[in-house]
Amino acid sequence: MLERDDVDRGGILPAAETNDRAHTDIRADGRDRAEADDRAHGDVGAHDDDQARGGDPARDDDQARDVDQAGDDDQAEPTLPEPVRARVIALVATALGGMPADEVPPPLRRVAQFAPNRRARMGAPAIAAQLRADLVFRQRVAERVLDAAGELGAAIRDGTPPGAADPVDVAALTYLARPAGWREVLGEVTERLRTDAENAAVAERLRAAEHQVIRAEHERAVAKVEAEKLRDELTRLRAEADALRDQVRSLTRSLREAKAAEKRANELLATERGRAARAAAEAEAELRRVRARLIEAELAATGSRAAAKEARAVDDARLWLLLETIGQAAVGLRRELALEPATILPADHVAATMAQRADAVGRASARALEADDPARLDQLLALPRVHLIVDGYNVTKRGFGDLSLEQQRSRLVAALAGIAAQSGAETTVVFDGADKINAMPGIPRGLRVLFSRKGETADELIRALVRAEPPGRPVVVISSDREVADGVRRHGAYPLSSDTLLRRIARS
Fold first, then answer.
1. Segment 153-167 mean pLDDT
2. What is the dihedral of CA 275, 276, 277, 278, to 10 degrees?
3. pTM of the model
4. CA angle 241, 242, 245 (to 5 degrees)
5. How far is CA 153 from the centre of its chain?
6. What are the two backbone dihedrals, phi and then psi, of residue 322, each rounded to the nearest 5 degrees?
7. I need a labelling partner for 141 at 20 to 30 A (CA). Which of 14, 324, 331, 436 fits?
8. Residue ranges of the domains in the chain?
9. How confident is the model at residue 315 (pLDDT cuts 50, 70, 90)?
10. Cβ contacts of residue 333 below 8 Å, gap of 6+?
11. 374-507: CATH topology
């Protein structure tokens, strides 16, 4: 097949490219072509002599045809369509393989040695140049090609190509044989090929347009389906948005109602706290008056030792009854008001005025307990349903920190088990770091041992235990941590220092 780079629409090859590629071969073989032309002209002269002597009429026709071809060759080469040019090169390349070596022009002898499939591809420039320059070579090739074409070749020689034949083959054979009217045949074939190419291009554009129309219809149908889906989705989203707006309005209304209820509750709580504060102040004033009368009664009882035995017994009975009543009232008030046990009694404030009575002052001082006196713990543990909560490591590190943590825990648990058994109080001990404890030995009955979880401290767990208790239940917290003591005191618990528990354990 002839490549487009090797063939131009102005002929077999462009004149400049043909001259460039074959210039050397033509110039080297100029002598051979001149001799071939001389032989051809000699043959023509011999034909003339034969005619003068009365030669063959067929030869006269051939001579006339050669003369006509020579006249046609003087005209410009026609422009061959691309398929015709490729077919011409292919026919000549095929014919080269069967030509004798002496009939092959020297520029094409190397091309003739190529394989058939390479001959037309690689020898196209040389073949095209030789066809343009060598009339004898073209005639020889035309004879062989026409003979190989059979009936089609014979029809081409006669100048009557069949209408059913391939126009490309007809044009190629006509170009090589060049019978009478060959230029008109090439023009018709060129026009036919051009028309076929235009029809094919139009048909291709029609098919492309039909394909585009089909694809556009499909895309329109798909877009319609997608639009329906999007409309359905939009309807669903609008319904959801309406439902969410209704829900937001409902929640907003509920929030406003909750805030109003909270405000009313805070107002009631403030009112009740005011009432409780006034009641506590009145109770405290009453308690001070009662204590003052008690002190006066004690002093009067001490000063009236000389009084009669019956009068003193009546006074003692009245005094005991008053003390019992005041004590029960004080316990009830302390439980309701969550008051911390006092370290200084009111009698201590009037000690200066009673200095002349050392025995009365001695009795008043005897009733005042120290901050870490274990008796305070005993008093609180005697309250009904009391809950004792112990900050474990805060106690052990103050009391026996030279021991290992496991020994500290065991010693504290054993001591608290005895206190719980004696007092009957609910007892809970809290330690830090449950993730660091592999196992805890057997826990005594009546004692609860808790460990804080990872990310939580024992102080937080103690405050949570205090908050969990119902208001009014007495809760005693053992810890020397001031932050823990202040926190539990705000929730109504009684904080005591770790030294109080350690002295209670030592006393046991």
1. 76
2. 50
3. 0.33
4. 85
5. 76
6. -65, -45
7. 14
8. 4-180, 202-324, 338-367, 374-507
9. low
10. 280, 283, 287, 339
11. Rossmann fold (3.40.50)
